[in-house]
Amino acid sequence: MTLNQLRAFVEVVEHGSIRAAARHLNMEQSGLTQQIKRLEDGLGARLFIRAAKGISLTSEGTELLARARIILGECDRAEQIFRNLHGELSGSINVGVSSELFALLLPPVLQQFRKMHPRVSVHMSAGPSTSLLSALREGRLDFALTLISSGTDTGDFHATFLKKSDPCVLCRKGHPLRDARSIHQIREAEWVNTRPFGRIGTPSNRLADWFAGNGLGIPNMVGSVESLYDTIDLISSSDYLFLAPRIILRKLSLGRHLDCIDVAEPIPESDMCLVERAMIELAPAPKAFSQLLLKHALGVGR
User: Fold this and answer.
1) Distance between CA 194 and CA 98 in Å, rounded?
2) Across residues 137-141, what is the average pLDDT?
3) What are the record keywords, sorted (predicted)?
4) Residue pair 60/47 in contact by the 8 Å Cβ criterion
5) DSSP-assigned states of every residue in 152-208
């Protein structure tokens, strides 16, 4: 098994076919096919199920994918470390960011960082906590700025506390339940979320935990919409409710169409944290960016 074989394997997975991966790598399709065959022969396992509609991973392929991404990510980080030892920071950074932390920290910090290190590019992936932590485990992210709750599995991570999350119940302007002051007055309302409910005590399950903690059944969920912007658009043009960061009211252009229902019952807390893998030190560029974020977060938190 070689690094080139692992890179070929990951490219095929990410592009959905050998043809598309070969085109992206600017190599002959037959050469890429041979790389995959040699990898399968070396492992003694079939990695792909090939069909007329494309390819899918076998269970062995799924197992290899997570490990291959970690191995290749660490190789890239090692190269970056040695490039940066005696010169200006360069390369790329992959950061996972939840919507609340993006609005709170990223715009001013990113601008400052780019002025300090113009040869470093920053790619940011948005998503719920569970998705970002999975990507971090697999080595697809350098670190994540996300929500951590009592039920979050952080055994293989180091989490630095930044600030308490500030959620609220969002509704459209003029919503008939706008003046409700108790969760019991909105228990029959219809809700949307950016993700299906998760495990008890996790950020994605906060709405269900809130209802359960007040002796209510499962909220009446219309469905989930992964895009925060699309969720807000839906809320602003319907009578659905959404448990969301309060900062949305100030930061997003659609905020002027929204209102907040202030109820007496406290919403389960989550911590906004900078999360990195516990046993792996950040490369110089991600480390510099994370330190700048921490410095700014401490100033915002005062």
Assistant:
1) 11
2) 86
3) DNA-binding, Transcription, Transcription regulation
4) yes
5) ---TTEEEEEEEE--EEEEEETT-TTTT--SGGGSTTSEEEESS---STTSGGGHHH
d(CA 125, CA 210): 28
Mind listing the pLDDT tens digit for each residue in 244-300? 988 888 776 667 789 999 999 999 889 999 999 988 888 888 999 999 999 998 775
pLDDT exceeds cutoff 70 at 37: yes
> What is the model's pTM?
0.72
Sign, CA dihedral 171-176-182-184, equals: negative
> Which class does domain 3-70 fall in?
mainly alpha
Note the residue count of the chain. Answer: 302
For residue 70, name the pLDDT band (cuts at 50, 70, 90): confident
Average pLDDT over residues 47-71: 84
74-113 burial string, b = 16+ CB within 10 Å, else e? Answer: eeebeebbebbeeeebebebbbbbbbbbbbbbbeebbeeb
The reply to whether 88-162+275-301 shares the fold of 3-70 is no
Q: How far apart are CA 83 and CA 89, in angstroms?
A: 8
Fold adopted by 167-261? D-Maltodextrin-Binding Protein; domain 2 (3.40.190)
32-42: average pLDDT: 88
Under a CB-based contact definition with an 8 Å cutoff, are residues 158 and 149 in contact? no
CATH superfamily of 88-162+275-301: Periplasmic binding protein-like II (3.40.190.10)
Distance CA 78, CA 46 (A): 30
Domain residue ranges in the chain = 3-70, 88-162+275-301, 167-261
Residues whose CB is less than 8 angstroms from the CB of residue 16 and which lie 6 or more positions away in sequence, other chains included: 54, 55
DSSP type of residue 98? -
pLDDT value, residue 302: 47
